[in-house]
Amino acid sequence: MKRNRPVPPRRPRLPVAAWLAGALLALSACTTNPATGERQFTALMSPEQEKSVGAEQHKQVMDEFGGPYDNPAIQAYVDKIGQRLAANTERPDVRYTFTVLDSDIVNAFALPGGYVYVTRGLMALANNEAQLAGVIGHEIGHVTARHSAERYSRGTLAQVGAVLATVLGGAEVGQLAQQGAAGVLAGWSRGQELEADSLGIRYMAGSGFAPTEMSSFLATMGRHAQLQALLAGKPGAADQFSYLQTHPPTGERVEQAAAAAKQRAPQDWETDGAAYLRTIDGMLYGDSPKNGYVRGQVFAHPSLGFRFEVPEGFRLLNGQSNVTAIAPDGKTLMVFDGAPGQGARNPAEFIAGVWAPNAPLSGTQTLTIDGLPAATAITPVNTRSGQVNARLVAIRWDADSYYRFLFVTPTLSPAADRAFQDTATSFRRLTSADRAGLRPYRLRVVQVRAGETVEDLARRMPFRDYPEERFRVLNDIAPGTPLRPGQLVKLVVAD
């Protein structure tokens, strides 16, 4: 390639130089945040813009997380706690919207402008009002500290800095500035998370909630992540299964939150465990009926009317738009979903012309699965980790729609391929009896009777693997700790 002779950068003429000076002056403007008392650069996102951005993204959150949980009493309960906390913040200009999402994922987050979300999965894990207040207070802290505006403004500053550096002749500086922008926009920083913890504790204490419960619940979420890793066959990989994975390590946050809570003047803090447990008694646990159910190795969808089964050892994960199954080795997986036929006349045509029109297919076969027309084919797939093999199976459900299995593995051995085909051919339509037997799981709060043990109550839950560990994490009961007669505990039961 022919290289052009480098041209020395010219000194900017006055209008450009004046513009650069003005831009730098505007970008360097800082204000003092009333919540943190710190000087903060948020010049490029005003409070009005925060409200607009939050309102715009609220609908996307509803779509992504299954919408609000359909229980007005629980929604009102969470809103009451949230508004109580919000009344003790430093930003009376923010009007908060608190929403319980119909998701079993343990999660909570906030959007700019005062939109705060908790999932029913997180509520199931909490054991008293103060623990829930700690989560909500933390998310309110992100709002009052204006972390979204700070992140956006600093990211834009880094991008503008890259442009300025390039204009002034420093291309390498510009590249570094762009890398800095990417880092700023990647997520909450360690300092921002700890700052939100600190503010949350302040709001808890000001509202009468026991601030020590924030650290207690952080520890519980850490144990929940460890359990999820154990259930997935990956003990020691808890960070992959925690909503805290993009946050500072749980241990550090627990220690700092506990230390901050101890600095608060002791008084009659509220925890209100009994009121909280009464509120969530009967709440859905796990999969929502509208998304179908994972039951061991079986996925069944009563409203859509089908089921299938994956091999022993595979872990089924139910999502909003698809179902995934992951093998114990973590390298072999299955993705199941539905798709429109787009005019395809048969399953083989659907695979070749609609689903994978540009893929080099081989071994195409027509099948019949539970009396429904189907087809399968094999194709190589290039990934960042190298080439893998995929088996595609399409089943025609009706004139306009297909269900499809995508099986992916590094090496399509006869054993792996047989497992894939067994999964696909296990697909069948549900009978009336099948539908009647599929019931959602719910939380039930019971009182421990004299002589009852953890093992006794854990056996009442519909889990085959690690029932005692599940029960202890759900109720925040440490290993080896016995139950007390009269104690209220949560059970998961088939409704």
From TrEMBL:
Which co-factors does it depend on?
Zn(2+)
- A single Pfam family it belongs to is Peptidase_M48
Occurrences of domain Peptidase M48 (ranges) = 74-258
UniProt keyword annotations, A-Z: Hydrolase, Metal-binding, Metalloprotease, Protease, Signal, Zinc
| Entry's Gene Ontology cellular component terms | membrane
Gene3D superfamilies to which the protein is assigned, alphabetical: Metalloproteases ('zincins'), catalytic domain (3.30.2010.10)
Signal peptide limits: 1-28
Presence of keyword rRNA-binding: no
Keyword check for Signal: yes
Q: Give the highest taxon in the source lineage.
A: Bacteria
GO BP: proteolysis involved in protein catabolic process
Instruction: Provide the GO MF annotations for this entry.
Output: metal ion binding; metalloendopeptidase activity
State the protein's name. Answer: M48 family metalloprotease
Give the species.
Aerophototrophica crusticola
